[in-house]
Amino acid sequence: MIHVRNLTKIYNGFQEGDFVALGGISFDAMPGQVFGLLGPNGAGKSTAMRILSTVLKPTSGIALVNGYEVTESPSDVRRQIGFVSVNTMIYDRMTAWEMVELFGRLNGMNEDELQLRMERLFDRFQMNGMRNLLGSKMSTGMKQKVSIVRALVHDPPVLIFDEATSGLDVLAAREVFRSVEELRDEGKCVIYSSHIMSEISRLCNLVAIMNRGRIVAAGSLQQLADEHEVHDAEELFYELIAQSEREHSSLAMRNG
Amino acid sequence: MTWTNIKLILIRELKDQLRDRRTLFTVVVLPLLLYPLLGLSLIQITQFFREHPVTIWVVGAGNLPTDPPLIRGEEVASEWLPENQASLVRLAISPVDEHGFCEIFDRFRRAQESEGTLELIDQWIQQQMAQRKVDLTVVIPRPVDADVADASLAPKPNAYMLTSSASDKSRIALERWQSVLNRWQLALFERRLAERQMTMADALPVRFEVMDVARKAERNSAAWSKILPLLIMVWCLTGAFYPAVDLCAGEKERGTFETLLSSPASRSEIALGKLLTVIVFSIATAVLNLASLTITTTFVMSKLSHLAGGPLGVAALGPPPLLSVFWLVLAMVPVAALFGAVSLAAAAFARSSKEGQYYLVPLIMVSMPLMILPMLPATQLDLGTSLIPVTNVMLLLRSLIEGSFDPVLRYSVVVILVTLLGVAAAVRWVVYQFNSEGVLFRASERFGIGAWLSFVLQHRGDLPTVGHALLCGVLILLAKFFVSFGVGVPDDWYEFGRQTFVILLATVAVPAVLMATILTRRPLLSLRLTWCRPSFIAAAMFLAVCFHPAFATLSRIILAIYPPAHDLAALHGLIENLLASTPPVWLLLLVLAVMPALLEELAFRGFILSGAQGVKNQWLAVAIASFFFGAAHAVFQQSLLTFFVGIVLGFLAVRTGSLLPCIAYHAVHNSLTVLGANLAGSQWLSSFEWLLSVGERGGISYHVGPALFMTVTGGCLLYWMWKETSRADIKNFDFSRLGRFCNQLRGVYQDLA
How far is residue A57's CA from residue A52's CA, in Å, rounded to a whole number? Predict the structure, then answer.
């Protein structure tokens, strides 16, 4: 469903020099799975997600989403995905209904199908009370619900959640978790990024732990725990990142 | 790209903007309220308007003729004052010798005659006037009738009006005093004629009266034709800019831009959807302003008709004619599209709304000269001005509103074409901006010149970029502009030769070679210094001969459309004389043909075209290089011709990949022109009578038959080159290979040694 090979992203900045946001990552994610990208801030998770959703172009490497390559057929890729990110806000001057309707139409849905799907989604996410509420009047949780419904309206086979619970209270975050679990059970391929270990351990079948633009470890949480003989998830995460930092420091010292 | 997505984004943006109170206020509420409020305020203010009296200090009033008297008592005799100005002219009378004023003034006058204006005495007179609180000083130093008796003094002035052009009140005082004087002098003239038993008809047999045959509507149109086009431009620009900032920078700030980018709509569809929104708001702003202005002038300004010709000249203005309004609305579409696209492209670059606002001023600074140019009285719609964007639309509008349809019929096609080209270029820019990740996700960085330079050096590519090409072109134009100030007309031919060489080298070749060396990894390839098949060089030389008749004809057509200005013709005459006086033809060819061919080609078909080819469309790249090639020639007529020559040169460069055919073509083309001008009347040229004839000014003109044949042959040659250069087995020789070959030879030599 999602195949990523040697994906790199380098930002050229004349003050700080070249910044390697992604240093050649590779992973695969299949339908009915939640693939977690876990890493500290600045690890490159959002960059990878933005490339998969075609918002950014990779410097090199290949990323296939449901058979479409992100640089060659970006429009087709966008039809295959629903993207929910901490960076994808909703319009202040549009109602929840209008916002979801717009994205349904942009995805080429016919009017009857769209109305039916929206009714179902608004029922499922208990959003009927906020149909005509403007974005500027919504709470953070309400906004995130609209974002999720916007991403689901065209029933995409791939869902990308980038730090989707950031800034949400516990109740709203639980709603997001429940949605992700339902989507997984429906057979969707979900990519879920977070820097919170408990979220990942609850939702993900497979995880890739990232640091400084590279995947430092990948597999199921159980596999990783057995490999590193650390059975506490938080501890495992800390251990892997610390090890990666030590390697980076020694490499930097060797390179002067 | 689908229209459905563009329409969806357009509708969304329109809805979004209409729900924004700031936009509604700027676009709808402000114009609908502003003009009526301004009109009402004007009515209120006019109640307090009155004309202020001026004080005129008359020194030596006693020296004036007394029959009829100009001054009665301490006032101007009432018969010389217009009815409504009786109380508006006050006099301060002084005897001639007051504080020795006349003596000092007389000295000043004599000094002025010999040495020009003396600032110290000007200051002293201003002080004297300020002390007396007067606006104008009239000095009559001697009895006037005594001067008349002295025939030698009669033609010289014997009375003076000292005014300060820096003061409005002083200028008004002068106007009023002159109006009084005109009436009085006419009466005096009649009286003197009567004394000699003559009438006015005897002295002035021809008397003119001015009659304005323009209808009121026409006068009205003429007045509006100057104001409305400018207002439309300003409304369209401001109406486009604020929504553009909100739609790009505002969205980035609110975090909704990424949401839209992750939708299936392509970047181009998003850009076009937003552009259409900006155009709609730009037109809406202009239409609402125009409607409000029309209603205000109809209902409010009519109330001020009593002030027509008074202090408010605008009160004489009626509402804009309906036909003018129609033309204005029609013109709004391309203007709004142009400004909308430019605003959106600029706004896409901004990271926040605040940063976006900063771009308005530079945008206005660039647009203003184009908007002000048509306001100059001497500017009219002709082929030259119809090629200037914005200016051409304003001039076309002016002609339409004035009802002068002749220039409109003649140049409207050019204006429409230039405007459409401008709109297309601006739209492409917007789409490019939206497709550029560096623009959309620009992060804020501190700017340091050192860091920037090292960044540029580290990231230089094999060939220059489009930006490098444009920068090089602009640098060449700037260098030429500044050097042109420091260079005078040469005295002799050798100086002309030296000047031409130094200017070409310093302003054209050096910037290109330096930029190629510093900004690219392969300078030789960037300057297109690669070998090519000798047959291409020979073909290029033959092509120059074949196309020369076509370009000679084009040159004559250009000169017929844009006749050279007088001073330019004089300068040309000077240079022609200079050249005619120089016998060695080989030297002429060196300076005017070979040298420009070598140095100009390095820059224009070398560095600039190499960089411009980054735009992918090769013809556009050739046009960019040709534009700079043309613009680098100071004389406009020459610029136009060289632009077209540049297209052929660009074709040669792109197809052969080498600069050598371009240099060959350029050198032969220039040589033929120089020889034609220089060898007029020579025995050698007379043997080509079957082909060409020499004009009176030395220019050559080809006979139609041979010219057509040569042009067709040139066309065939171009086709041959096209086919030949399309062959896959052609490989150009790379000069760097020569370097590697030399290194290998050196290695072999060292081994042997």
Answer: 9
